Recover the amino acids of this structure.
């Protein structure tokens, strides 16, 4: 979003992503190691709701800054495939069948659908926005319906809601109040079945609005033995390393948590 914050406390992309990963870790520890319906379970799951908007925010931000969107889409697809087995282990157990694979798909599948939809919308915008705004609007809405429908039918994590959140960060970029109001409306629709715990995720915007547009904390820098600052020279390389590290964290932490849980449960 590249939001400009007032002088004072702000957060870099790296810090925000670490926070989101820790929140997601709390959520998955809660799922695997606490009993459903307990106070600890409810609290852990509520905290976990904060992670998704942050990850979706950076997915869309990355969409604007990447030099090769097709490569990013392929990377998402690869990590989505890698993550599916750990995800199924976490939610359905070691004895999941081929049928249970279709009970739900991991969050990276949702992010893949969002990214593919954004690529289609952006292509249409470049082709028709200035010549025929009505066509652009209709075609974009059609692609969003297709993307949302795909997420719903595939039963991806966060379903159509995740797709709509991604679209919000795209269309309301730089518009704090609009994206917040849009998000609340999406929440009202998504929570119509009574899942009010999702409203805790609004707290994510307190963090997102503090984003300072920097990849790393201001204190972060590469220094040579002579004291020369070479941060600018290596920042792009470190960006890609950390990008893939954050993607890898998703299947890796699920695998480790599952192994710990099943070791205690089955002695394997």
């Amino acid at each position: 979003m590249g939001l400009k914050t007032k002088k004072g406390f702000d957060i870099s992309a790296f810090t925000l992503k670490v926070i989101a990963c820790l929140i997601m870790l709390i959520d998955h520890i809660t799922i695997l190691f606490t009993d459903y319906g307990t106070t600890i379970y409810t609290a852990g799951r509520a905290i976990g709701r904060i992670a998704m908007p942050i990850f979706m925010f950076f997915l869309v931000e990355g969409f604007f800054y990447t030099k090769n969107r097709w490569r990013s889409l392929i990377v998402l697809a690869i990590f989505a495939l890698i993550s599916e087995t750990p995800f199924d282990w976490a939610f359905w157990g070691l004895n999941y069948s081929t049928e249970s694979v279709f009970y739900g798909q991991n969050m990276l599948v949702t992010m893949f659908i969002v990214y593919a939809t954004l690529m289609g919308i952006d292509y249409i915008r470049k082709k028709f926005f200035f010549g025929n705004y009505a066509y652009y609007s209709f075609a974009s809405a059609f692609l969003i319906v297709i993307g949302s429908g795909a997420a719903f039918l595939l039963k991806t994590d966060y379903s159509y809601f995740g797709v709509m959140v991604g679209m919000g960060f795209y269309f309301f970029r730089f518009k704090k109040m609009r994206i917040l109001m849009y998000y609340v409306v999406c929440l009202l629709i998504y929570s119509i079945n009574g899942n009010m715990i999702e409203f805790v995720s609004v707290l994510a915007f307190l963090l997102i609005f503090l984003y300072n547009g920097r990849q790393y904390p201001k204190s972060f820098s590469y220094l040579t033995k002579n004291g020369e600052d070479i941060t600018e020279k290596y920042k792009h390389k470190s960006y890609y390393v950390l990008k893939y590290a954050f993607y890898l964290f998703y299947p890796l932490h699920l695998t480790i948590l599952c192994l710990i849980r099943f070791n205690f449960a089955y002695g394997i």
Confidence is low (pLDDT under 50) at residues 2-7.
